Amino acid sequence: MKYKAIKGTRDILPEEMFKRRYIENIARELFERWGYLPILTPVFEQTELFVRSIGETTDIVQKEMYTFLDRKGRSLTLRPEGTAPVVRAYLENNLKDFRNPTKLYYFMPMFRYERPQKGRLREFHQIGLEVLGARGPDIDAEVISILATYFEMLRISTYEVKVNTIGCRKCRASYTKKLRRYLKDSFEKLCVDCQFRYEANPMRAFDCKNRTCHSILNKAPQITDYVCDECQRHFEGVKHFLNISGTRFTVDKRLVRGFDYYEKTTFEVVSPLLGAQSAIGAGGRYDPLIADCGGEETPGIGFAIGVERLLLQLEEENVSLNSIPPVDVYVCYLGEDLLDKALEIVFNLRERGLSVDIDYAHRSLKGQFKVADRLKAKYVVVVAPEEEKMESVKVRDMNSGEEQIVKKEELAKTLMEIIHGG
RNA sequence: GUGACCGUAGCUCAGUUGGUAAGAGCGAUGGACUGUGGAUCCAUAGGUCGGGGGUUCAAAUCCCCUCGGUCACCCCA
Q1: DSSP letter string over A269-285?
Q2: Which one of A154, A337, A382, A410 is most buried, counting C-beta atoms within 10 A?
Q3: CB contact at 8 A, A36 and A104
Q4: Beta bridge partner(s), residue A406
Q5: Distance in angstroms, CA of A366 to C1' of B34?
Q6: Strand B positions with any atom < 7 Å from protein CB?
Q7: Interatomic separation, CA of residue A7 and C1' of nucleotide B66, rounded (Å)
Q8: A178 vs A172, A224, A288, CA distance in Å?
Q9: To 5 degrees, how large is the angle CA A113–CA A115–CA A116?
Q10: For A37-57, b where at least 16 C-beta lie within 10 A, e where not — what string?
Q11: Using the CA of A309, which nucleotide's C1' is the nearest one?
């Protein structure tokens, strides 16, 4: 084979497409019931949008973006995440005048140049949701609880919702000083990554899995103990409203997000079943982002779910999803000269709304039945000379094996009745 | 970007110390059953042994490079 799907990408074949459509449909149904509307943004954007929103020093911007020049030398980037594009679209289209707050959801592919592993691809898909223009902790709780509700609707049970606050820019600045002061004494013991983080963003050290770092950070001052009064009140509010909504969650003081635009509330849904890439969904509040993108001061919050990880989780939990649906009727014909008659029936039944198929590979009758079986056909209609003489066909119930002769003029009605009516 | 393991038919795999082993099962197609599927039996098709180079009389097998996969680090959905 000459060509292959490029590293970290894959084809999504029919069987998986139906599973994806199922989880997508559940998301649509749920999100729209809660007042969220769909949006789709272009796969690429000006590189600058991502650099400024996600943050110059983040891994995504520094080494994971698919960035290229177009034919006029403009730098473009395949979107690595959904929030910045949605914010851009919100501002560009003045969506605040359409609905305020603006509640949106999306289902889009994302691109990151990473080394593929379980639950991590270079092209992957996210189901995401954003609320622009709502400031209070009540909306934070709504966003987190819709995420949890979604998992419940999918019958996922082995997961945990973690919630934290990372403070706003003001309180984070003073906290960062305190954290640096604490880390200074053990600086030599930190791993090289954390030594780098010490300067760039010391809070990220809480994510470090290095044992030494982990134990050092265990005794470090916690952001939750140092946030300003407003952030503290906000966080208490989030927990309060989460309790009202009946959402189960745990507070994880080590939960830090990787994008610069987050502040205050952060949250994550993790599963113990997925290996190293355990976050199925995650998000947070990003109040500074909209102003950073050139809009007026507007609060925002949202999350994204990794579709491939969600599918892995469903697999791990043995949740059975409908895949390729069976056909209602498979039409067989005995002899080439009855093809015309068979096709008339096929078109007629399709017009009535039944899913109908026929053999185009000129198989023997037995071969046609085998195909019917493989397609899980509920009924087979046989067009054959003997019945044709009586303007009739034979109808076989593929489950029971029972057969009956049916007048052609009554065929559609009869089939509609036994398939839908019964 | 780093490391470990792994690439043989559409799928799952077997292939001995390098020496007629290019093989099995499943699947596909056809037949036994000339008008009937899900069972059985038979037959057929399908492979540059991931790719390239090297060692050798001889390479799926040994060596090097490369591409890809898997998992972990890292990062994150």
Answers
A1: EE-TTSTT--EEEEEEE
A2: A382
A3: yes
A4: A393
A5: 12
A6: 1-3, 28-31, 33, 35-38, 48, 67-77
A7: 15
A8: 10, 13, 23
A9: 105
A10: eebebebbbebebbbbbbbee
A11: B77
* CATH number (domain holding residue A342): 3.40.50.800
What is the model's pLDDT at position A151? 98
Listed as ranges, residues in chain A with pLDDT below 70 are: 1-2, 422
**In a shared domain, residues A274 and A345:** no
Please give the pLDDT value at position A422. 56
Per-residue confidence (pLDDT) for residue A215, from 0 to 100 = 78
Separation between the CA of A280 and the C1’ of B77 (whole angstroms): 6
Task: Please state whether beta strands A265-270 and A44-46 pair in parallel, antiparallel, or not at all (unpaired).
Answer: unpaired
Are both A254 and A297 inside the same structural domain? yes
Q: How far is the CA of A120 from the C1' of B53 (A)?
A: 34
Taking only the tens place, the pLDDT of each residue in A338-356 is: 999 999 999 999 999 999 9
Cα pseudo-dihedral A309, A280, A28, A82, rounded to 10: -100
A160 and A289 share one domain: yes
* pLDDT for A1: 58
According to the model, what pLDDT value does residue A37 have? 98
Which protein residue's Cα is closest to nucleotide B48 at C1'? A1
Scanning A302-403, the segments in alpha helix (DSSP H) are 307-316, 339-351, 365-374, 385-389
User: What is the reported pLDDT for A175?
Assistant: 82
What local confidence, expressed as pLDDT, does residue A227 receive? 87
Q: A383 and A292 in one domain? A: no
Q: Which long-range contacts (CB under 8 A, 24 or more apart) does A51-57 make?
A: A52/A292, A52/A293, A53/A83, A53/A84, A53/A87, A53/A259, A53/A260, A53/A261, A53/A289, A53/A292, A53/A293, A54/A80, A54/A81, A54/A84, A54/A259, A54/A260, A54/A261, A55/A259, A55/A260, A55/A261, A56/A260, A57/A200, A57/A201, A57/A260
pLDDT score of A149: 98
The reply to whether A264 falls in a domain is: yes
Strand partners, A105: A38, A129
Q: Which two tokens stand for residue A270?
A: 């993790």
A193's CB contacts (< 8 A; 6+ apart) are A208, A210
